[in-house]
UniProtKB/TrEMBL annotation:
Nucleoside diphosphate kinase-like domain span: 1-138
Task performed by this protein: Major role in the synthesis of nucleoside triphosphates other than ATP. The ATP gamma phosphate is transferred to the NDP beta phosphate via a ping-pong mechanism, using a phosphorylated active-site intermediate. (Microbial infection) Catalyzes the phosphorylation of dZDP to dZTP, when the bacterium is infected by a phage that produces the substrate for the synthesis of dZTP (2- amino-2'-deoxyadenosine 5'-triphosphate), which is then used by the phage as a DNA polymerase substrate.
Active site (record annotation): H115
Binding site for ATP: K9, F57, R85, T91, R102, N112
HAMAP family per UniProt: NDP_kinase (MF_00451)
Organism: Paenibacillus cremeus
Alphabetized InterPro entries for the sequence: NDK-like_dom, NDK-like_dom_sf, Nucleoside_diP_kinase
Main location: cytoplasm
Keywords noted in UniProt: ATP-binding, Cytoplasm, Kinase, Magnesium, Metal-binding, Nucleotide metabolism, Nucleotide-binding, Phosphoprotein, Transferase
UniProt-recorded Gene Ontology molecular function terms: ATP binding; metal ion binding; nucleoside diphosphate kinase activity
Protein name stated in the entry: Nucleoside diphosphate kinase
Amino acid sequence: MEKTFLMVKPDGVQRHLIGRLVQRFEDRGFELIGAKMFRMTKEQAEYHYAEHKEKPFFGELVDFIISGPVFGMVWQGENVVALSRVMMGKTNPLEATPGTIRGDFAVDKGSNVIHGSDSAQSAEREIANFFRPDELMLQEPPALRVVQ
Ligand code: RTP
Ligand code: MG
């Protein structure tokens, strides 16, 4: 089953949007298999955004994401990577359609409330950056037969 890494960014946490955002993904039918609030280290942030290392906004992006607690989540479901990106809306606030998360809650390109992995491969890499395998509710182990 496909997995993705979604994260309420520091602005979303500060604005008390966690509950409403979790609700949207539960309503869509996805399964939450891991979640925690934490403060990202600079090393984690630079690794997370490594694809943007050469961009002029890289420093600002890293400073923003470590500026306060984030709420990281691992979600599972059919096409969860692509569908959660549709639910998030476009990065550019002028293109984020109302009804999407960014279209409903964000007006700024940087403070845009939520992150979501852009491919299954990115998801795997991002999940490993923030979660230990034992923090995820993967396959339940078969029930132990108690022999009396
Ligand atoms: P994200 O990675 O946060 O889910 O967002 P995304 O895929 O929609 O956008 P991406 O291109 O990966 O960019 C990562 C984050 O960098 C900030 N950004 N700033 N100032 C700028 O021109 C600019 N462009 C991108 C945004 O906060 C974006 O979410
Ligand atoms: Mg991205």
